[in-house]
Each structure stands twice: as C-alpha cells, then as structure tokens.
Amino acid sequence: MDSLDLLSITVAAFAQAIAYLFFLYELSQHYRSYVFGGNPQVARKRAIAFSVAVFALFLCVVLLVLQSIIILVVVLFVMAVLVRAIRLRFSLRCLERKEEELDGIKYIVCRSDVANAWYDYRGKIICVSSRLKEVLSEEELKAVIHHESGHAKHRKLGLFTSFIDYSWLYAVTGIALLITLLREISLISMLTILYLVFSEAAITLSATVISWVNEHECDREALLKSGLQPFMAALIKTYVYGSLRRYSSFIDNVKIKEAKEIIDVITASATPKQIYNTLLKYSWNFPKWILDLIINPFYYTHPPLPLRLALLMTYHTRIELGTPDKEQKGKPVH
C-alpha cells in the first residue's frame, strides 16, 4: 500500500473522530434542550431528527465498509439476535402469570425475583414482576403501569426504536467481525480500526439518544396520570432494586425523600458538562458489548436516573405554570 493510500486512511480516520466529537456536542445540546427547554414537542422532534441523521450517515459508512463480508456479517448478526432473544427470554420470563387491573388498565403480574416492568409489544400487555409489585405502594405501582401504557400509546416511536436497536446490532457485529479479520498489525490496520471504532461510537450515540427520548415520553405520560412524587419514588425503587437483581430480597424497603429535597442533586447531575460526559461514556459501551457478549449485549437503552428525574422536575414545573407543551419566555427551566 503506497503513501497515498496511507494518507487517505489517516485523513478518513481523524475526520471520523472529529465528526464524532462534533455530533456528540450537538446531540448533547439537543438532548439538554429536550430535557430542560420550554417547548418539549419541538425539542423532541429536533433531537430525534438530528439523531436519525447522524445514525443514518454513519450506518451508511459502516455498510459500505462491510459489503465485502456481507454474508459473514449476516450470519454473525443472526447469532447475536438469538443470543439477545435468549437472554431476554430468561431475564424477563414469567414463572407464573396472574392478570390484575389498576386504574382501568389490565396488566400481568409475573412471578419473578427480578424487580422490573415492561410492555410486551407482541402480546400488547403490560407486565410487572412480583418482586417490583411487592416493593411499590399502590400509587407508585399506578405510576409504573402508566409509564408502560405510555409505550402502547407511543407504539410507533417504540417500534422505530426497535428498528434502530437491530440496525445498531447489525453494525456492531459487523465491525467486531471486520476487526477480528484484520490479523496483520500495522499502521494501516490500526487506522482502519480507529475509523471503524469512531463510526460505531457515533451510531451508538445517536441510537442511545433516540431510545432515551422514547423512555422520557413514557415518563411524561406517567407524570400526567400519577403525579410527581409517586413516579419519582417508583423510578428510584425500580433502579435500586433492579440493580441489586436477586439480592434485592435482602432489603425490605427503600425510603424516598420528598421531591423538593432531591432537586439540588438532580440539578448537579444534569448540567451541560454532565450530559456531555454521560453521552460520551455511554456511546463507548459497545467495546464492552464485544467483550461481555452474554451479560450485557446492548447499549444503555434507558436514561440514567438523574436525567429521568430532571425531565420530570422540569415538566412538573411547566404543568404548575400551565404551559406543559408551550414555549416559555426566558431561559430553560432548571
């Protein structure tokens, strides 16, 4: 390979890195505008549109690179889908099902030690694990159910998010395969890997924002139907017990402070710098996916707890002002 080819790959690799950093900054601004801005509907459309543009751009770049090994990529992709399906099957399985109803919404209680709730798009039913139901009050459970019913209301956005999920999965498995095939250790191979890695980071970044917006929209539905304090408490308990998994049975109850006592912590966790750093960190989760295929075969589809609480506080303030979906004058609400 001559010096001209080396120069071309070098320029492409560093251009890809600069493009990623530029889109990281822009997406963090769009995302923060969505969380704290005065017009959530407009901000949502802009955040999703920009994320889709970034995703499509870098996905096309990756597909062009992978076209020479397309058959191998498809085989690896199918295997990755099967691994993910099996993992979800076991992590969200119902050992025993019981139908119940709350606030006019039917849902299924699944006997399970995992503290979680989810919306089954195929069965069009809300599922709540028995462990989560045990630790939530009736008002908190109502909030969780309304969040999951939000997924039914925003079904199109949810299905689009699933399409993005699998597109991401296809790209990352292809890049993992291509990097594996680059057996020769040379400057050219290192630059090629750098090019592919920053492409995948940009794809992960945009897919993450799209998925987070989807969850935030459902959070807004729960806030409107259940109120601020019950849903905040439900979210915190879900994150706490969910992170402990089976060991959550060792804890009887998690006490949640009043909403006004959490404001300072939320504000400190949702500054422009913190949002930028959070998206930077989460957009590089895919190397962990490659190394830890079975345990965590995906990027972070749900926003961090402080950012979810930040949107709830902002939207609750707009509701109190009587302008939940209207443009407000002045700076974003903090």
TrEMBL record:
Domain Peptidase M48: 107-312
One biological process term in Gene Ontology: proteolysis
Highest taxon above the source species: Archaea
Keywords: Cell membrane, Hydrolase, Membrane, Metal-binding, Metalloprotease, Protease, Transmembrane, Transmembrane helix, Zinc
Keyword check for Transmembrane helix: yes
GO MF, one example: metalloendopeptidase activity
Protein family membership: Belongs to the peptidase M48 family.
Protein name as it appears in the record: Peptidase M48 domain-containing protein
